[in-house]
Amino acid sequence: MSSGIQFETQDWIKQLGADYQHYKVRQNQGQLIFSDAMGVINEEEGTEVYAAGFYNHTQISELVPIFARIGKIQVLRLMMNFSGLSKGFCYVRYENAAMAQRAVNCYNNNQIGDKILTVKISRDNRALCIKSSSNSDISGLIKLLRGETSVTKLVLYRIPNTDYGLIVKYKTHKDAALGRKGLIRRFKSDIFQWKLDFEEATWELIWNSQLETYNFFGKSLSNNELL
Q: Whole-model pTM?
């Protein structure tokens, strides 16, 4: 974060009023993040919007007041490049889904300056899709992932005439993103992809971690037998 942005934040945040008195701007992993330093974020699906189309020199101090007109912002994340400029898009999470939809209705295809914005509900993807032709690879991953507190569900599929597929569902999108990054780093593989909804329709369900028993590679086992 440049020193200019740090200096500027103090005044413009105060001008937003009492609702934002504990908010700060911090930099983290290529993002400028405007959020409540003392609050707990509600990451319910449908509360976040994706906004794109503004100039790369647009600052977070310009974006926050625009999106705050809609309702109380929980978090605004401005994506940055290595040179310290924005990538021209951000994510805004509101207190509830109604506010997020209102932001879409008000700002999508509307003009700010001479730029046309794209604003839509963010796809809050909390699931990864892992494909492998190796039974042992998938078995090992299941044992590993069952120990992760951020993982809420594991679903194993047989993809007709090809490989096995494991859907890993996490508590939040952030958990899923961090989980994917950790898996790629650990296994040095690109098989950990974001789940595509249409894929499940063509797959044969073999196992669901929330069921007490399942068919695991041709054997009927209980959940406890995999621990």
A: 0.63
